[in-house]
Amino acid sequence: MSDAHETAGTPREHHTSQDKSLAVQAAMLDSADELAALRDLFALHDDSVYLDGNSLGALPRHVPERVQDVITRQWGELRIRSWTEGGWWTAPERIGDRIAPLVGAGPGQIVVGDSTSVNVFKAVVGAVRLLDPAEPARDEILVDATTFPTDGYIARSAARMTGLPIVPVDPEKLLGALGPRTAVVLVNHVDFRTGRLHDLPGITAAVHEAGALAVWDLCHSAGALPVGLDAQGVDLAVGCTYKYLNGGPGSPAFLYVAERHQARFDSPLPGWNAHTDPFAMSPDFTAADGAVRGRVGTPDILSMLALEAALDVWEGVSLAAVREKSLALTDFFLECVEAYAPPGRVRSLTPAAHAERGSQIALRCAEAPAVMAALIARGIVGDLRRPDVLRFGFTPLYTRFADAERAARALGEVLTEVPAED
Amino acid sequence: MSDAHETAGTPREHHTSQDKSLAVQAAMLDSADELAALRDLFALHDDSVYLDGNSLGALPRHVPERVQDVITRQWGELRIRSWTEGGWWTAPERIGDRIAPLVGAGPGQIVVGDSTSVNVFKAVVGAVRLLDPAEPARDEILVDATTFPTDGYIARSAARMTGLPIVPVDPEKLLGALGPRTAVVLVNHVDFRTGRLHDLPGITAAVHEAGALAVWDLCHSAGALPVGLDAQGVDLAVGCTYKYLNGGPGSPAFLYVAERHQARFDSPLPGWNAHTDPFAMSPDFTAADGAVRGRVGTPDILSMLALEAALDVWEGVSLAAVREKSLALTDFFLECVEAYAPPGRVRSLTPAAHAERGSQIALRCAEAPAVMAALIARGIVGDLRRPDVLRFGFTPLYTRFADAERAARALGEVLTEVPAED
């Protein structure tokens, strides 16, 4: 399976011994896993296998108590004083600095707040406004044609409002599409559907060589693998905090504006939180310096401080170890799927090459809706991407090799029960 | 004080008997207050007087338990299933429908999500795009010159991105400024600084007569007084939920798009949540029908469901009773201030006429920073609007007449201690 997308399948009669050997192998891998102890930090039970952390990360066990303090003491007792004394006001940039090392950014370049969609709008319009006005011929926004759709929708709105056209481009063909008309390029680091990891260093360098700016969407890579924003010279980036960063349902997204661009970053959403002196309540807008310029309105404190608490699980965790385990988990899952799944029923859409793989496995399966429903009924929680993709996310902080084996085994069983479509 | 802005002041030697009579009067008013029992629904203690609910509403007592369930059970156990089974996905429009009756809107016209600033952007750009393209001469956006600053900043960005100029106009002079060039008018229902209530019915009618669209900011009126969005024919509106709606720090704002405009409402932030079939993950955007079209990205569930819980306190509450108590409270506070404050030290910026008054009292005071600090040290929590405004918010659901009397008495004491500036 390591070099082929098609699962070869194996005769059913071999399953019993294979089950045992793969289960034994899983146990060995788990016992050698240096991140294994982190699982205890999360509210997870052995009655199910949660492989949907790429949609909603699991709850870190200590978060409820922290949020309770935010609500009962900070809101309930201190009330308005918490904005200053409780650190509410500075939460967006403080939490941004907590996320920064996880995506390879130095301090002062990330703010947390708003949804990913809103941040894509800030980033794309902001990037267009960073362009040299002496180069009006540079007028195209290239957008990942396989993007999670909201990026495309929002980029199109940003393009419409800045007067530039959108050019959808498959990331595989992006390098060939770059040219003297390229203004801004918006790409996903990891494809939400296939789990394909795009070449952030190579694409960013090529974009710069073409004289354009690179905006990266890190929704499916932040917390799953090293990103290296500063080292690779990324211009702007957005990301999600409720997937591999476990911030909670709909927790606020983040915006990265590289330090060298901050002084000229001109947000299309210059709310009062981006003002250099918000409480002056001046009718004139004077943008704050630094990452704060990316803020808009009053931050949603409950969601934001739940995220801040959730980030504690990263204390002392090496992203290199996370990446190593992620690849080992997805390799092992593919191996198990190859062993357990009836031949020809599923086909991996996720690249076999490590350099091209994020932290999920997407399997194409004609009967995907029925199969995923049956898996969930058995406690194996992945998700469906219509019409025919089974998606399994592997969060190295809490997913065990035993979970991968159990999920693949259940998939094999379900596939024998759900008849193949003609 | 009822007809004059200047507090007349009274000789100090009368204070003792006045204190008693006003304290007695407060007790009588409280015992006759039909909303008095609602205070028990909130986490408030008698060691302080909280008059900052127009900045951050107090915590309803039952909210912590509800949020705990959202975190530990819905997120911690059900995890991704809560998006469908737990009603997370439909929360923005469901909670919008809970807010609707509080602002005089029928169902299906309000969605909750994003900050007020982001919603101002949607509303102003959306309003411009609703204009008849056959009337290109209608090209001015009139903006309340005394607005809470973020509305002005964002309106200017919306104007820049739609190519229309902004014209700041004092709401008092708005009717005279309307004309054939007026495209959109953005006004605050209640002025954040002075507490002045603007004439929503009259201004809306005049805006329509001029052929333009009216966008109202309800931040300081939603939950404080009847608004009548549908009855007055308001076109679009935005509002805040963490002031008089007690949704919690930074809880999401709301957007109202009148039903008659929804089919043509063209959001500048068309995120995937506004798509007619978001999980089709289509590269092409097709806007959802109805209020959902005002959504953008994934909603911040913790903040949103805390707000939903907080709205329970409105069960069976009459907004007419809320308004009546609000006016009685502010009248009484002004009467107490007149009785207790040394002559000439404070002057009310809030109109005496009920028809022009929101639910706060703003007192101009040369020594405002020192005075507010001293008040807060005594447990009387209002807030300062730099440089010289003392702001006291009166939330009829939980503020007592005794609180108003106690706050005014403390203000009188503080003013005798803080020397008047020359």
TrEMBL record, chains A, B:
Q: InterPro entries, per this entry?
A: Kynureninase, PyrdxlP-dep_Trfase, PyrdxlP-dep_Trfase_major, PyrdxlP-dep_Trfase_small
Q: In which pathway does it act?
A: Cofactor biosynthesis; NAD(+) biosynthesis; quinolinate from L-kynurenine: step 2/3; Amino-acid degradation; L-kynurenine degradation; L-alanine and anthranilate from L-kynurenine: step 1/1
Cofactor names from the entry are: pyridoxal 5'-phosphate
Residues found modified as N6-(pyridoxal phosphate)lysine: 243
The enzyme class is: hydrolase
Residues recorded as binding pyridoxal 5'-phosphate, renumbered to this chain, are 116-117, 148-151, 217, 220, 242, 272, 298
EC number(s) recorded for this UniProt protein: 3.7.1.3
* Role summary: Catalyzes the cleavage of L-kynurenine (L-Kyn) and L-3-hydroxykynurenine (L-3OHKyn) into anthranilic acid (AA) and 3-hydroxyanthranilic acid (3-OHAA), respectively.
Q: How does it assemble?
A: Homodimer.
The name of this protein is: Kynureninase
